[in-house]
Amino acid sequence: MAVTMNDVARAAGVSLKTVSNVINNYEFIRPATKQRVLAAIEELGYETNLTARSLRSGKTSMLGLVLSDLSVPYYAELASDIMKAAWARGYRVLVEQSGNAAAHEKSALQGQFRSLTDGLLFIPLSLDAEQIIQAAGKKPLVLLGEFVQDPRLDMVLIQNHEAAAAVTAHLLAEGRRRIAVLGAHDGDTTGSNGLRLNGYKAALAAAGVEYDPALVIDCEWRRDGGADAIARLLDSGVGFDAVFGLNDVVALGALHELLVRGKRVPDDIAVAGFDDIDEARFASPSLTTVEPGRAEIAERAVELLINRIEGNGSPDKVEQTEAAFSLRVRQSAP
Amino acid sequence: MAVTMNDVARAAGVSLKTVSNVINNYEFIRPATKQRVLAAIEELGYETNLTARSLRSGKTSMLGLVLSDLSVPYYAELASDIMKAAWARGYRVLVEQSGNAAAHEKSALQGQFRSLTDGLLFIPLSLDAEQIIQAAGKKPLVLLGEFVQDPRLDMVLIQNHEAAAAVTAHLLAEGRRRIAVLGAHDGDTTGSNGLRLNGYKAALAAAGVEYDPALVIDCEWRRDGGADAIARLLDSGVGFDAVFGLNDVVALGALHELLVRGKRVPDDIAVAGFDDIDEARFASPSLTTVEPGRAEIAERAVELLINRIEGNGSPDKVEQTEAAFSLRVRQSAP
DNA sequence: GGCCTGATCTGCAACGATGTATTCCAGCAA
DNA sequence: TTGCTGGAATACATCGTTGCAGATCAGGCC
Fold first, then answer.
1. For strand C, which residues in window 43-82 of chain A come within 7 Å by CB?
2. Which residue of B has its CA nearest to A59?
3. In whole angstroms, how far apart are CA A179 and each of A114, A232, A271?
């Protein structure tokens, strides 16, 4: 079997507990003893059994990350950043794909998944704040600001409204007046879709341009969703001179379909997205979009969660921070 | 604190071990007792402590997945598939990003990461077979057939050679004769780069077309790598009428740069890739590529690894399977 | 010398589950 | 009645660590 602390202790001629103390950097250990223990560890090739440590200490040094699906580029890139940030602080990340199913999200919040982690980073898509508060246990939980907003929960937010307004304002400044929105339903007011739609409306209003519900097309936030949506819009005969995809893959799907249909981008129709995934820079034409502060979100969320876990900071004060966004103007909407 | 088996046992008026037996579906339990225990579990909201179970049983029900970076689309999509396949069999996946660093890969093979998992799925990029065998412990290990090939190791392979040959043959059949290759060095013979390059050479030879080392440009397997590489090629003045990016992002980076430079694709230059990431279908023009059997790879690798873990199948026989690939002809090289 | 202090190290219990061995008991054959 | 069988439940040890309380010992001070 594997080498245990007991073996190391025997080899070094000290007690098991002293080995434990050495490993945990206990202050009062004679240098000579420490050397002896470290030598024995080296010689035997001892590795701490993390499972046993977890059981005893009640900590797993793992953060849970709940998102819909890693095959969504924005989430994959965010997950990568989060894992690096966690790694740098001595934590690992266990990813759970909810597939955007409410039941699955709920089980991730309370089930055994929870017991494997010291805290959760959660990108809710189906559950609302009330359900989250209901389902969540006592362990630290930080929401990543996509859909849900609530004063009772720690979260790191995207400036959905402001960023969407900035994109829209940019399109308006270019002279576009009929800007289609893909990925929201006319009535939406909450969630990323609603918040971004409202940002869009606000920018229109600020520019004195009339809001036309016929330009708002709902779709799945996927490439094929964007392609379908723009196809429907084209077929409907409603006129438009720009497209704002509420995320990049929707915009890219739409861009593809526009080009297939022989539209010139940006000459006939400008296209803009939201997320600034790596792909946006290399699309043809490259995609104008908004960078929501992904690196900052990952960094802050991990930091906040770990502070909660380790009991740093003010425990009673709910922390809500917003990441800084920035517009990335590229060829699709120069 | 959390509810333990002991609490459940007390509530149900049975011994702790009986609760354990119920949970583990032990055969001989009176239905009435089982009911009582289940009721108590329900009432108290008991959840198995997986850490304790792991310590006692020596199994974590977690698979490790070591890859370079989740922000690489192919890996993200593969990881998503793998997680679903594992989930369906009652396992979770713990992802470790090696960042393509040998030291990091090595530590993932032997370090504490290993002790958290029952087995490892490994996509080696820096280590060779010898190093892997040296570093790997006794726990099950399945390589995902990207770079390394060795008769001593379990693995699920991509048909790098054949698939690359198929792509090349397709370009040749179109009448292309000067096909640039991006992502390999002229001398490469091993690894995905070498194997794919060899497939390319074989297809050229089969068609009686001369191999020109000047058309082989090495680069990082990233979008910007592909863009840089094609820029260098264009600047060098070497003539070419097609580009084979050894993976999709390289091809897409090249495609972007070609269009920026005013080349018409596919009229002036055809472009093909390798991987069939979702993005390939929606690029403009859409990217001709080869689907390496990603879903099958994920499924088989997980199945094989779990069989190893659970001791099914023939333990002495090294398992090596190849996934079926298929060419996806799209606009960039019709 | 006796006592106190603080550095250093040790022993034991405990985290929450499972494996093994054992007990208990009803049913049935002898 | 006795003995046996096998279903059903249990007791106890155990996985490898860490927390806690305590033991040991040298040095300083009265």
1. 52, 55-56, 58
2. B51
3. 43, 15, 9
User: Between residues 66 and 105 of chain B, which touch chain A (CB distance below 8 Å)?
Assistant: 69-71, 73, 76-77, 79-80, 83-84, 87, 92-97
Residue A7: the pLDDT is: 93
Answer whether any strand D atom is within 7 A of the Cβ of A61: no
Extract the runs of DSSP E, i.e. beta strands, from A137-264: 141-145, 155-157, 179-182, 216-217, 242-245
A310-CA/D21-C1' distance, Å: 25
**For residues A137 and A39, what is the distance between their CA atoms, to the nearest angstrom?**
43
CA A101 to chain centroid = 17
Q: Nearest nt (C1') to B48 (CA)?
A: C17
How would you classify the pairing of strands A326-328 and A289-291? antiparallel
pLDDT in tens, A146-181: 667 788 889 999 999 999 999 999 999 999 999 999
pLDDT tens column, B155-169 = 999 999 999 999 999
Q: Is A190 helix (H, G, I), strand (E, B) or coil?
A: coil
Question: Quick one: CA dihedral B226, B228, B230, B233, positive or negative?
Answer: negative
Statement: residue A265 has pLDDT above 90: no
Compute CA distances B199 → A232, B150, B162, B241, B280, whole Å.
43, 19, 6, 19, 21
**How many CB atoms within 10 Å of residue A101?**
13
Q: What is the mean pLDDT of chain A?
A: 91
Report yes or no: A179 and A168 within 8 Å, Cβ to Cβ.
yes
Chain B positions touching A282 (Cβ under 8 A) are: 223-224, 227, 252-253, 256
Burial class (CB in 10 A: 0-12, 13-18, 19+), B140: buried
Determine whether the interchain pair B50/A283 forms a contact, defined as Cβ–Cβ distance below 8 Å: no
Q: What is the mean pLDDT of residues B87-105?
A: 90
Q: How many CB atoms lie within 10 A of CB B98?
A: 23
The answer to whether A185 contacts chain B (CB < 8 Å) is no
Residue among B49, B71, B84 whose CB faces A115 most closely: B49
Report which of residues 233-252 in chain B place their beta carbon less than 7 angstroms from any atom of strand D. none
With beta carbons less than 8 A apart as the criterion, state whether A127 and A135 touch. yes
For A163-191, b where at least 16 C-beta lie within 10 A, e where not — what string?
A: bbbbbbbbbbebebbbbbbbbbeeebeeb
Strand ranges, E, within B89-161: 92-97, 119-122, 141-145, 155-157
Q: What is the percent of chain B with per-residue pLDDT over 70, rounded to a whole number?
A: 99
* DSSP symbol at B120: E
Cis omega before residue A266 (within 30°)? yes
Hey, is B177 helix, strand or coil? coil
